[in-house]
Design brief:
globular; 223 residues; TIM Barrel; binds D-xylitol-5-phosphate; 8-stranded parallel sheet; alpha/beta; binds zinc ion; single chain
Length: 223
C-alpha cells in the first residue's frame, strides 16, 4: 500500500510573528518538509522568503527544508541554499539558458535532493530528458509567484501523465504538487499520483481554523 502523502507546509503562508510556535506545532505533527519559496522580483513579479529566513528555520528544526527557487541567478542561489541548510533544492525547468544536468549534479553533490519545477504552461514531456536524474518534480498547481491562488484543474491530468511516465520508464522521482492545494483537492492529487503536497493558504494556514486543527483536518483528507 502506498504510504500517506507527505505534507510540505509553505512557510510563505505562516504567521511570521508567531513562527517559532507554528514550527513547534508542525514539528509535533511530523510534517515532511518546510517549503521555502525564494523569489527575486524578476523571475516572478513578487518577493517572498529569503536565505536568512531559511538559515533561521533550518538551524532551529530537525524537519528538512526544501527550497523552491524562483530567481534569475540559479547557480548562485543553489549554492546559497546549500550553505543555508537546504535539504532539497528545486529550480524551474523552463529556463532554456541553464545547464540543467550540471545544476542537478551540483545540488546532489552538496548533499541535498535535486528537484525540477514544471510550470502550468509547460507540457509534461518537456521534462523527459532529465527525469532519470531528478529526485523530485514540483508540479505547479498555479502560476508561480503568489500563494492563495485557485488550483488549475488540469493539473490533475498533468500529474496522471507524469505518474504514468514514471511508471513506464521506471524512474524513482517523487511528485510534489505545489499551489492551490485545499481540503477538497488534496486526495484527488494523491489519487492522480502525487507523493507529497505543498500545504498553504487554502488548507493548513486557512483562517477558518487554527493551525493544529487544520493540520488534523488536512491529514484526515489524506487517509
Ligand atoms: C507559488 C508558490 C507556492 C505557494 C503555495 O509560487 O510556489 O509554494 O506558496 O501557496 P498556496 O498553497 O497558498 O497556493
Ligand atoms: Zn513553491
Amino acid at each position: 500500500m502506498k504510504s500517506k502523502a507527505g505534507i510540505f507546509p509553505t512557510l510563505a503562508c505562516a504567521d511570521y510573528l508567531d513562527l517559532r510556535n507554528q514550527i513547534d506545532i508542525m514539528d509535533r505533527a511530523k510534517v515532511a518538509s518546510y517549503h521555502i519559496d525564494i523569489m527575486d522580483g524578476n523571475f516572478v513579479p513578487n518577493y517572498c522568503l529569503n536565505f536568512d529566513y531559511l538559515k533561521a528555520v533550518s538551524s532551529y528544526t530537525d524537519t528538512p527544508c526544501d527550497v523552491h527557487l524562483m530567481t534569475g541567478e540559479v547557480e548562485r542561489d543553489i549554492r546559497t541554499s546549500l550553505e543555508c541548510g537546504a535539504a532539497a533544492v528545486a529550480f524551474h525547468s523552463e529556463r532554456t539558458d541553464l545547464d540543467i544536468p550540471a545544476l542537478l549534479r551540483m545540488i546532489k553533490s552538496g548533499g541535498a535532493k535535486a528537484g525540477l519545477v514544471l510550470s502550468p504552461h509547460q507540457a509534461v514531456h518537456e521534462l523527459e530528458p532529465w527525469l532519470g536524474m531528478t529526485d523530485y518534480v514540483i508540479m505547479m498547481g498555479v502560476k508561480p509567484g503568489f500563494a492563495g491562488q485557485r488550483f488549475i484543474d488540469d493539473t490533475l491530468d498533468r500529474v496522471r501523465t507524469l505518474s504514468s511516465l514514471r511508471l513506464d520508464k521506471g524512474f524513482p522521482f517523487r511528485i510534489l504538487v505545489d499551489g492551490g492545494i485545499s481540503f477538497e483537492n488534496a486526495a484527488k492529487c494523491v489519487s492522480a499520483g502525487a507523493d507529497d503536497l505543498v500545504a498553504g493558504a487554502l488548507c493548513i494556514f486557512s483562517k477558518d481554523g487554527g493551525l493544529e486543527e487544520n493540520i488534523d483536518r488536512f491529514s484526515a483528507c489524506l487517509e
